[in-house]
Amino acid sequence: MSELRNVTCLLFDEPQPKMPVPPSSDRSSATDVRRAQRVSKAAEEQRTAQSAMRAAVDRTAELQRRTGLSRFVYENGLTLVMLALFLLSFVGQVLTGRATYNDEQQQHAQPTLSVTQYLTTGAFVEATAENWESEFLQMGLFVLLTVSLYQRGSSESKRIDEPEEVDQDPREARRDPAAPWPVRRGRFALALYEHSLSIALLTLFVLSFAAHAAGGAREYNERQLVHGGKALSVFGYLESSRFWFESFQNWQSEFFSVALLVVLSIWLRERGSPQSKPVAAGSGETGE
């Protein structure tokens, strides 16, 4: 209809309807974004013209040569290796933690525990949940803060002056048959799905926080029982300086390590890692 009206206006010398003109500041910002996008795209194409293309071809060829379990391992190697390292570390924690616990038990003329018994002690629950709590808090807050906070030049930040795929409104893809079910469903399902990562991480933080409080209170009471002291409830332990000392000593290290990663990724590189900018990228360039 708009095209037909424009033709009619031309035939009868009628003035064509004017399209709304955005404010000059918006036009200037849009121009800057398009210019930055062109420069970034040209630089990326120059960097990836040969070596990056060869690496992608090699990875694809390797994937095509694999089948069955071998292909599954190749496609999920990062998760599998991290889980294997977790299990090794976890077993190491249990064995050394039990040995330390039993040493203390012997010093106080108390019975030693088997591995199974040690897993139910407040000492084990508190030590494990205390660390998980800080990790989930750090990751959850980092996911949320990177939505609206920036660090120019860091691979861990969105670009300020270029379009980012993560900023796309999923409602624009509602009719895309390849979109996830919550996107096509919309409403509450989409509202939950578009924040599901931070919700999951912060939920794990809350659960770990509660386990830390419960395990810490149990360990504290076990020690108090040996020394004839007064026991505390979980809420009483939550009010103690010991609980918050245990939490803050882990939180501060997590936040400091993330801050260092954000800043160091401005100037330092790790070739082949998606957590790093391309080695040939300038220090002022933001994003991967």
Walk me through this protein's architecture.
The structure is a single chain. The protein is mostly helical and 288 residues long. The chain has 2 domains: 67-117; 121-288, no CATH class. 68% of the residues lie in helices and 0% in strands. It is built from 12 helices and no strands. The chain has helices spanning 2-11, 24-48, 51-65, 68-75, 77-107, 115-118, 122-148, 181-185, 187-193, 196-227, 234-238, 241-267. Helix 7 packs antiparallel against helix 10 and helix 7 crosses helix 12 (241-267). The two termini are 44 Å apart.
Shape: elongated
Q: Give the end-to-end Cα distance, rounded to a whole number of Å.
A: 44 Å
Q: Identify low-pLDDT runs.
A: 1-19
Helix proportion range: 55-70%
Q: Mean pLDDT, as a whole number?
A: 85
Q: So how many helices? A: 12
**Rg:** 28 Å
Number of domains: 2
Oligomer: single chain
The major β-sheet equals: none
What series of H and E elements makes up the topology? HHHHHHHHHHHH
Beta-strand fraction estimate: under 5%
**What is the number of beta strands?**
0
> Structural class of the secondary elements?
mainly alpha
Fold blueprint:
Elements lengths: L1 H10 L12 H25 L2 H15 L2 H8 L1 H31 L7 H4 L3 H27 L32 H5 L1 H7 L2 H32 L6 H5 L2 H27 L21
Sum this structure up briefly:
The protein is mostly helical and 288 residues long.
Brief descriptors of the model:
mainly alpha, 288 residues, disordered N terminus
